[in-house]
Design a protein that fits this description.
Elements lengths: L7 H22 L5 E4 L3 H11 L10 E4 L5 H6 L1 H11 L3 E3 L5 E4 L25 E9 L4 E5 L5 E3 L5 E6 L6 E4 L10 E9 L3 H20 L6 H14 L1 H17 L5 H25 L14
Antiparallel strand pairs: 1-8, 2-4, 3-10, 4-10, 5-8, 5-10, 6-7, 6-9
């Protein structure tokens, strides 16, 4: 039996392990429901399509435009769509305009774009209830979106579709199929909604989204350290439950039998990663981007 009074390393490893397990449990029970439907406001989506359907070069990478870079005509058309979405998820949710994106997909996922073809969760804020909503302005039959946690649900998003999923707790990825040739430009309007008046969740998601997009843009053509680090963090956060099973076995082996060598280094690496995760989450609360200040954010 392990003598926890003497084995301080084992105590440290076990505490950090249970902290990480609690995150996984919280994620499981705090997950928002997936919604997928066709909008009744097809005329509005047609109007938006007429505005954004222009020759945007996505041959080598995707293109993104923030809320403040989206035409006023689009913002003016969104009210009925907001109302349609809130009817599905409840009036306790509130729109976050600061992280609205207009997104042009690319079939060629290079460098930072590759994170989307790997199974991933979009955000690390497991305690926040935030919906990411994809309003499909134009679809593409070759691009599928997979949700492994929903019986491996595969969705081919078409024009007028609206997909809502948990920003922080729904693993998903995209895949290119070759069932038929479709050269259509896939265009998506990404909207976000936070539950209740949780201004900290709203602010942190804005800071995270803006910083992540900055890193993404820097690493589009060439993958630098920031891109590698970001991808590793994304994969770790997404696959935490599987990693914990491996860590559990290592702790058992280390604390009962083998207290030296590579096991010790692996377990300390695990501890460092978890502490870095806490520091990274906390640093978003320290940012002060004007666009993310809920008291004076730029709403259009």
């Amino acid at each position: 039996m392990v003598n926890l009074g003497r084995d301080r390393e084992c105590i440290l490893f076990i505490i950090v392990f249970f902290y990480s397990v609690l995150i996984c449990i919280f994620n499981y029970f705090n997950k928002l429901q997936l919604h997928y439907f066709s909008s009744i406001h097809k005329d509005i989506i047609d109007k938006i399509y007429a505005i954004v359907n222009k020759n945007v070069n996505t041959e080598s990478s995707s293109k993104h435009y923030w809320n403040e870079d989206i035409q006023n005509e689009i913002h003016n058309e969104l009210t009925p769509i907001h109302e349609e979405i809130l009817q599905r998820i409840g009036q306790e949710f509130r729109y976050i305009p600061s992280i609205t994106e207009l997104y042009y997909s690319s079939k060629h996922n290079n460098n930072s774009d590759k994170q989307y073809v790997n199974n991933h969760m979009d955000g690390p804020f497991y305690a926040c209830n935030v919906y990411r909503v994809l309003v499909i302005i134009n679809g593409n039959k070759n691009i599928d979106t997979h949700f492994p946690c929903y019986d491996n649900t595969v969705v081919n998003l078409k024009k007028y579709d609206i997909l809502l999923f948990d920003y922080n707790n729904d693993p998903h990825y995209i895949d290119i199929n070759n069932k038929e040739v479709d050269d259509s430009q896939r265009i998506i309007l990404k909207l976000h909604y936070v539950k209740s008046d949780n201004t900290l969740c709203e602010k942190n998601h804005c800071e995270f989204a803006r910083e992540s997009r900055d890193i993404f843009e820097i690493n589009k053509q060439t993958l630098y350290f920031t891109g590698i680090f970001s991808r590793i963090a994304l994969l770790y956060n997404t696959n935490r439950a599987y990693i914990l099973f491996f860590i559990f076995l290592l702790i058992l082996l280390y604390c009962h039998k083998y207290k030296k060598g590579i096991l010790r280094y692996i377990l300390y690496t695990f501890v460092i990663i978890e502490f870095l995760g806490i520091i990274i989450l906390l640093h978003y609360s320290m940012f002060r981007r004007p666009i993310c200040n809920y008291t004076d954010r730029k709403e259009k």
